[in-house]
Amino acid sequence: MSPLTLTPSVQTVQSIQLEANGVRLLDQVRLPHEVRYLTITSADEMRHAITTMIVRGAPALGIAGAFGVVLSARANAKAYAQNLPSCMLAVLVDADLLAETRPTAVNLQWAINRMKAVMADFDGETSAELVSMLEKEAQAIFDEDLAMCQAMGRHGRKIIPRGARILTHCNAGALATAGYGTALGVIRAAFEDDNTLQVYATETRPRLQGAKLTVWELQQENIPVTLLTDSMAAWLMKQGLVDVVIVGADRIAANGDTANKIGTYSLALAAKAHEIPFYVVAPSSTIDLSIHSGEEIVIENRHADELVWIHNHNISPEGTPCYNPAFDVTPAELITGVITEHGIQTAQSLS
Amino acid sequence: MSPLTLTPSVQTVQSIQLEANGVRLLDQVRLPHEVRYLTITSADEMRHAITTMIVRGAPALGIAGAFGVVLSARANAKAYAQNLPSCMLAVLVDADLLAETRPTAVNLQWAINRMKAVMADFDGETSAELVSMLEKEAQAIFDEDLAMCQAMGRHGRKIIPRGARILTHCNAGALATAGYGTALGVIRAAFEDDNTLQVYATETRPRLQGAKLTVWELQQENIPVTLLTDSMAAWLMKQGLVDVVIVGADRIAANGDTANKIGTYSLALAAKAHEIPFYVVAPSSTIDLSIHSGEEIVIENRHADELVWIHNHNISPEGTPCYNPAFDVTPAELITGVITEHGIQTAQSLS
User: Fold this and answer.
1) Distances from the Cα of B236 to the Cαs of A210, A324, B132, B165, in angstroms?
2) Bridge partner residues of B26 (DSSP)
3) What is the pLDDT of residue B13?
4) How much is the ipTM here?
5) Residue pairs spanning A and B at CB distance below 8 A
6) How far off is chain A from B318, nearest CA to CA, in Å?
7) Which helix (H) or strand (E) element contains residue B18?
């Protein structure tokens, strides 16, 4: 369990959970019209859940990767009950495959590296012991994420003016984390003090995480939310209707350049033009000091189908060529501050 | 007929046409998967076609309004064959109702005012003569639009660099005009000289005119087009993949501020940040010298359903509150030039 006292709202939405018989996932592809949980039992199933975005969001991807390694360890500990080296080798193969499922969010690689470090340091004798150590580490990653999100909420609430109209993008909420959220964690925390806050959620094309997930998640907590298309955000700002922009992050380079869901850069440019504060909220595990700038961040390009097909309907002529990067990079100079579990810093002061 | 020689490409797509038995419309709601024409025979049907966006695009709305007045005149000339004053009164009522269908595009009011001026100046004696005069004026509005679009194409092609990657928004094409297009007219004209041009089309949420109409229209002419979400445009620019942005307009104030499809302002901000030329293409009838600045332009707000329902699928929880302005206003200082049938001017030099 987390070392922190959990506020009641923490438990509202839990999208991922390690259980004795597998990993329980809230199927985020089916939200908001269907709240369906599924239990997956193998690393292969976890890879599929990650690539199809049943589970998504940078912190949640880290947790999913770690839990995937646990699933692999459990299966391989049965297959190789008497052969620890073979068990470890098989788990390492799965760990590397899991790490490759999505390239942009650093949390996935970070969490898998923690799991691999446990294996490297392992001095036990049986596969069963290894499973137990990996379960412990994976659960620690989960618990720490929850605690970090709450800490980000405590720090971040200070930058939210009373009665603020807050614009957010994609879903950086409980659904994207162990259960409290990064950007939405800050909003949750601020809303505890001030229920006059309002949220504007961009729908976040192409996958509509804002419309499907953020609206749903905020409605679970009765936080007022208004939906708009991504294209309307700059005009909303021009109308004087946005006091602060808060987003999550998938990877932050040493110089503060921040990869996040496609569309973030456009919002940051618009916020700058209107002199609206623009904050990034992410656990320190999202900061990748191994890369100097955003130019080194690998941007995942996804299939055109994701853009043109909306729920069994093709919005454009068959076979239309598409540009479909899943993320963009916002330069540090457009970011007012980065909120981590340690506090609020300028994007330029991270390294 | 138009006084100009028509190039072959002019006839490719014709979305609106005055015929003896009514007005033939290409149903733009059903594109691109179904190319269906319908013939409407009353001013009421025309109002419905305008509000439901079976016909859309500022210049086409002007033509539609004028043709709607003709439909009213034809019907009322039958009803009041021997009573010219009653006929005229009934037509004027329909003209005013047509003018109110959509508030932002000035071309609609402009065209209806031309039709009303014909009625005011009418010195004939029979309702049948009135019909004939109104048909002549409406067809002139259509023919002039086609000629103006071609003139805009001739002027505008000069600002397109060889091999340019052109970003456009919404549909300012043949579908939105008498048949050649404003922004897409410039692209058509430039493509005649240089078939290495490429177009990037934003999908244009919420109604997806880019994905549904612009992609389809350009594909009819084999002009290479790549689709992206509105949220990707700034990132596309950051990647150095856009040489020029070209859009249409719904109303241009005397100071050059330009109302156009929602999302245009966001693109203009991004173009400015990347020092990419940003051009507006519109006939002079779109310039409204009666208003000083964009602050006076009435922005149409449309129903939330338009945003959350995509082809029978609701993308968000039931009853989600939405912000849904149909247009935004781009300040003159973000506009590199305005291309009309008279040539290219700075936005600041219109009045």
Assistant:
1) 21, 10, 51, 11
2) B37
3) 82
4) 0.94
5) 179
6) 9
7) strand B16-19
